[in-house]
From TrEMBL:
It comes from Amniculicola lignicola CBS 123094. Keywords: Hydrolase. Belongs to the amidase family. This is Acetamidase. Gene3D superfamilies: Amidase signature (AS) domain. InterPro entries: Amidase_dom, AS_sf.
């Protein structure tokens, strides 16, 4: 009896996964018992591959820290024995620290890249976060960069020798940009995306590309080619999307710096899920030229425009990325990028802008910073722990001498949600469906009821939607100034989402992030803490505002709240259009207040260490 052949997309997936496996050295493979499949059936929250400190009891007021009682915590990168102490020291530095170590001769580019490639291989086996693996090519480039320095030449740029991972959407010459679509596999890019070229010119080493959701329009990272990416903090919850692979990789320190794109929250949502910093600038600030989006070339310009930006392990790395990329004068190679040089921060570029550095508070005058707290969007009511996080952050900022005021934007934000949704797909999804049907590839489960073929909107309808957006943008301009035309505040703090990091495929509304894309504002994420048992307290009040709010309440009322234990909590910080420097300043100071100096260091040792590689 003849056996029916699998659909073509499955055959392609088998080949891509085999290719991935072949690119990981056999000596870097983990024993089977450390792979999540062997313990993912445990009840939450017993499913983390990251170590934490504390007792996980929380305080009922937001930001509980640590582990739940009886929890199985596996610090796999440290405990697996594959990484040497020197490799651990290297990979636990942020990108700024890595660049400093290379510049001072503490480490060679080769040993830095070797350590991060090994840790990326570990991260991939634990979370399935990678697509294209370029370890061999990365090591070759590292050797070239070492020779460059050995010849007495200055570093190529601020990222000389720094391992950087990029979302699969970015084209890297010689490898696929399949975005998890079978029909786009085995079609290597013939040239780099403009942003990739900028990073390489600054000395970066691209060592891998990271996983994305099918169609790039899901808030959980799953596709039929590479599979699902897991959240290393708690494998029962989402890693976010569409930059979810970067989130998992950076959380496990498999890259010094990550690069993603954001059209509705695709950098900020994964940053929250991974306990990371992330920034989405206005779309005109960082080049998106040459990025694979699964649509017809330049087709995305009609509706809402995506932005590129960093996913990072420290705030100073966010600023390093922006300073480097904007300083790369991409407007000379991409007409969409405005010719606006990086204007610098109020803090010194050399000061540490993030956890463990007290200089930020000294460099920026806290008394001059004014922050507005926006709690609600008028569509979806945040869960009690999300509102408590805002309370706690507000109190800490005020205690640090920062002016904080409450701001009600519900009359305006409530209009953004539906308008953003209407503009997301004005061209229809027919091109994407054509790509899928050519290999008989089905939609991912989460997309089945959310995406369908549809005709492009007529020009008259698009014009009306764009007119509404222009009116909203004009109205929002008024919130930043008082009656005398003086600036009222520098930044807005608001939730990233109305809920904590939810179970896989259960992310609710993206309105708290998509609204700022609609307005083309600069927005970033600052991690705050970890959901503890005390954060499970509190009930939703009143009736549901509508269908979106009703679904959100289902993630809290009569819901097993233990699923949220040990997941990151974060806030979103927003600044006006093209004010990325102002945003970085605000995020830096807020980060310093929320994460006061500790004994932990993200910088290299003070003296050179003998190489063991």
């Amino acid at each position: 009896m003849a056996t029916e052949s699998p659909p073509r997309y499955k055959l392609i997936s088998y080949l891509k996964k085999d290719e991935q496996y072949s690119r990981i050295p056999s000596s870097w493979l983990l024993p089977a018992y450390l792979i999540p499949a062997s313990y993912a059936a445990l009840s939450p929250p017993d499913v983390s591959v990251l170590a934490r400190d504390g007792n996980g009891q929380g305080n009922g007021k937001g930001m509980g820290m640590g582990m739940g009682q009886g929890e199985c915590v596996l610090d796999v990168p440290r405990g697996c024995g594959l990484l040497t102490e020197r490799e651990l020291r290297i990979t636990e530095c942020d990108a700024t620290g890595v660049a400093e170590g290379i510049r001072r001769g503490v480490w060679s580019c080769r040993e830095v890249v070797g350590g991060f490639c090994k840790r990326a291989a570990i991260a991939h086996q634990l979370t399935n976060c990678l697509t294209e693996i370029m370890f061999t090519e990365a090591m070759q480039r590292a050797e070239e960069l070492d020779r460059h320095l050995a010849e007495g030449k200055p570093p190529l740029g601020p990222l000389h020798g720094v391992p950087v991972s990029v979302k699969d959407t970015f084209r890297v010459e010689g490898v696929d940009a399949s975005i998890g679509i079978a029909s786009l596999c085995f079609k290597p890019s013939t040239q780099n995306s403009t942003l990739v070229s900028t990073l390489l010119s600054a000395g970066a080493i691209i060592h891998c590309k990271t996983n994305v959701p099918q169609t790039l329009m899901a808030l959980d990272t799953h596709n039929n080619v590479f599979g699902r990416t897991l959240n290393p903090h708690n494998t029962h919850v989402t890693a976010g999307g569409s930059t979810g692979g970067e989130s998992a990789l950076l959380a496990l320190k498999g890259s010094a710096l990550g690069v993603g794109t954001d059209i509705g929250g695709s950098i900020r949502i994964p940053a929250m899920c991974g306990g990371l910093w992330g920034l989405k600038g206005s779309w005109e600030r960082v080049s998106m030229k040459g990025v694979e989006g699964g649509d017809e070339e330049e087709g995305g310009k009609v509706g809402i425009r995506a932005s590129a930006g960093p996913v990072a392990r420290s705030m100073r790395d966010v600023e390093l990325f922006m300073r480097t990329v904007v300083g790369g004068r991409e407007w000379e190679r991409d007409a969409d990028v405005v010719p606006l040089p990086w204007r610098g921060l109020a803090s010194s570029p050399s000061a540490g802008l993030g956890t463990g550095n007290s200089e930020v508070g000294k460099m920026i005058d806290k008394k001059k910073l004014r922050i507005a707290i926006v709690r609600r969007d008028g569509i979806v009511e945040p869960h009690p722990p999300i509102l408590r996080v805002l309370d706690s952050v507000s109190t800490k900022l005020q205690n640090a001498g920062i002016t904080v005021e409450e701001l009600d934007l519900t009359p305006l934000l409530s209009q953004c949600h539906s308008l953003a949704n209407a503009l997301f797909n004005v061209a229809g999804s027919n091109y994407m469906f054509d790509l899928l049907s050519s290999t008989s590839e089905p939609l991912s489960p989460w997309l089945h009821t959310r995406m369908k073929r549809s005709p492009a909107l007529p020009l008259s309808a698009i014009q009306k939607l764009l007119a509404k957006r222009t009116l909203l943008q004009s109205q929002f301009l008024q919130i930043w100034k008082d009656e005398k035309g003086e600036k009222k505040f520098d930044a807005i703090i608001t939730p990233v989402a109305p809920h904590a990091v939810p179970p896989i495929d259960r992310w609710n509304s993206a309105g708290y992030t998509s609204s700022w894309v609609l307005l083309d504002y600069a927005a970033g994420v600052v991690p705050v803490g970890v959901f503890g048992r005390g954060d499970m307290e509190g009930e939703m009040e009143g009736e549901a505002r509508g269908s979106w709010d009703r679904v959100n309440r289902e993630l809290w009322t009569n819901f097993n709240r233990e699923i949220y234990l040990n997941t990151p909590l974060a806030i979103q910080v927003v600044a006006p259009k093209l004010h990325e420097e102002q945003l970085c300043d605000a995020m830096s100071l807020i980060s310093n207040v929320l994460h006061p100096p500790t004994s932990a260091s993200t910088s290299p040792p003070s003296l050179p260490m003998p190489s063991k590689l």
